[in-house]
Every structure is written in C-alpha cells, then in structure tokens.
UniProtKB/TrEMBL annotation:
It is found in: Membrane. It holds the Pfam family 7TM_GPCR_Srv. Keywords: Membrane, Transmembrane, Transmembrane helix. PROSITE patterns: G_PROTEIN_RECEP_F1_2. GO terms for cellular component: membrane. This is G-protein coupled receptors family 1 profile domain-containing protein. Signal peptide: none annotated. It comes from Caenorhabditis auriculariae. Its main location: membrane. The keyword Transmembrane applies. The chain crosses the membrane at residues 6-28, 40-63, 90-107, 128-148, 168-197, 209-231, 251-270. Residues 17-267 form the G-protein coupled receptors family 1 profile domain. It comes from the Eukaryota.
Length: 310
C-alpha cells in the first residue's frame, strides 16, 4: 500500500480528534446526569452526531487496513459478499448521516433563536430523546437506500476499487446535491439568525442559545469543502473512471476527517463548561457540574434581562 500525504494527515487528525471526541461525549454524558440543560434537544442531537462521526472514522479505519495481510486476502476472496460494495456504499451512508445531523442541529438552533417563544419550539425542546434518536438515524438511512442497494463493485489485485462509471456519476451527483442542499439550509438559517440578532433585543437565556449556534459554524465551513470535493469528483466521473477519480479519492480521508473532527474542537474552544469538564476528566477528577453553575442557570431563566446586541 502506498500511503499518500492526505492519509498521513488523516492519521494525525484521528490521533488527536478521536480521543478528544470521546472525552467530549463522556463529559456531555456526565453533565446530562446532573443538569437539565444538557438533556435538551440540542445536546441529544449533538451526542448522536458525535456517535455518527466516530462510527464514520472507525469505518474508514477498517477500510484503510484492507491492504494488510491477512485482512487483504480475506477481503479479496470474499469481496462478492458485499465487502467490496460496502466499502464504497458506506462512504455515502456515513456522509448522509452527518449531512442530516448538521441540518437537524442547525434547524434546532434556528427555531430556538428565531422562534423561541412559539409553541412549535417549545414542543421541539420537550421532544422525548428516543424520538430524536429515531429521527436522527432514520432520515439518512432512507436517503442512503439508493446507494446501499448497489453491488457492482470489485477489487483488483492491488485492492483498488472499481465500479461502473454510471454508479459513480449517480452517487457523486446525489452527494453533490445533498451536500449543496445541506450547505444552503445552514447558510440560510445562519443568515436569518444573524439578521435576527442584529434587529432584536435578546434575553440572557437567548444569548446563551446563540452561543451554541456559533459552535456549529465550523461544520458549515467543513461542508463547503465537502461540497467542492464532490463537485470536482462528479465532474471527473462524467468522463472517466480512472486518473483524477483515484486522485480525488486519495484526498477524501483528509476532508472527511476535517468534517468529523472540527466539531469537538469547536465545542471545547467555545463552551467554557465543556472545556472545564474535559480538563477535569483528563486530570482524573469528578466532572459533574458544579451546583453553583446549575443554580445560576436556573436563576437566569427566571430573571431574564433584555440586553442589546452589540
């Protein structure tokens, strides 16, 4: 196997990103046991999105070791049992899971900030966690059925993956559309949020909700990169099934890793409570939320003071 530099970048991203992501999710889980604020719709979605990101990276790690014996021989021998097809199809499945997840997170932030006092938003915030989990995983699974049903893929002796040009063109076009629509929804939502906060007076509680929205901006930027990637991939797949196609595939680990790993860094850098919990967990201390923090948050929701946005 010839490792190209994007793969090395992905390994570096994973070496830092996976442990950090796990620590962030453990911190959120611990906070959820002591604070109602960390059991709301946003953090339930965020936790599911973290699981999806980690599963995506684990899946790609399994793909990357298919060159290593005896795994190589096993995969090559039994590739017709959906091993070759799954290697290709699940790339799109994990992409669509994260696309839908970011849309759900963005729309939740949009409703919380812009329609904070509506009955719909109140019902959204009180939605049962199991319903959120079902929605999070069902929507992208249904969307991925188009790709998951394909089986016409095979490995050659060098473990390079081949499939029909028509399948590549269809899947990359669908990926371009899904990523583009995702970006469009996110950009539109944040544009409306920006206009809203510039033209309205926000309570202290709503300002906190706005801070949670800022944490997702990194994902929007990552999706712009992913859109550019699939747009180029589609343009190359129209005319050929080699050359630039394989070059673009070599870049996928790095871009895919950036899409997954930017999330924990954003929340640690922009959420002081999470950063404090991560630090305490790494030092081996109890990471349950300080009762003073819980008490102050309850007080702030009762005594909301309206302040202008600068």
């Amino acid at each position: 196997m010839s490792f190209v530099w994007p793969t090395y970048v992905w390994y570096a991203e994973s070496a830092v990103g996976v442990p950090l992501y796990i620590v962030v999710l453990v911190t959120l889980r611990q906070y959820a046991t002591t604070s109602q604020s960390y059991r709301n719709t946003f953090y339930v979605l965020f936790f599911q999105h973290g699981i999806a990101d980690l599963l995506s990276m684990i899946f790609y790690l399994l793909i990357s070791i298919k060159y290593v014996e005896p795994i190589r021989t096993f995969v090559f021998t039994y590739q017709e049992y959906y091993l070759a097809a799954g290697t290709y199809n699940f790339i799109y499945y994990t992409l669509y899971i994260r696309c839908c997840g970011i849309v759900l997170l963005t729309l939740q932030r949009f409703c919380t900030v812009v329609f904070s006092h509506t009955a719909f938003n109140k019902a959204l915030q009180k939605m049962a966690p199991w319903k959120i989990v079902v929605i999070y995983w069902t929507v992208p699974t249904l969307l991925s059925l188009v790709a998951l049903k394909d089986t016409g893929m095979y490995f050659d002796e060098n473990m390079s993956l081949y499939t029909d040009k028509a399948i590549i063109s269809r899947n990359t076009l669908m990926a371009v559309i899904v990523v583009f629509v995702t970006c469009l929804i996110c950009v539109f939502s944040y544009a409306v949020i920006f206009i809203f906060v510039r033209t309205h007076m926000l309570s202290s509680a709503l300002r906190r909700e706005l801070n949670l929205s800022v944490q997702l901006l990194g994902l929007v930027f990552a999706f712009l990169l992913m859109f550019i990637y699939y747009a180029l991939q589609y343009s190359f797949s129209i005319n050929q099934n080699a050359g630039p196609i394989f070059t673009m595939r070599s870049l996928y680990p790095m871009i895919n890793g950036f899409l997954s790993y930017i999330n924990p860094f954003m929340i640690v850098f922009l959420n002081k409570e999470i950063a404090r919990g991560v630090g305490r967990l790494l030092l081996g201390h109890n990471i349950r939320m300080d009762p003073k923090i819980r008490g102050s948050r309850k007080t702030s929701t009762k005594n909301e003071r309206v302040t202008p946005i600068q």
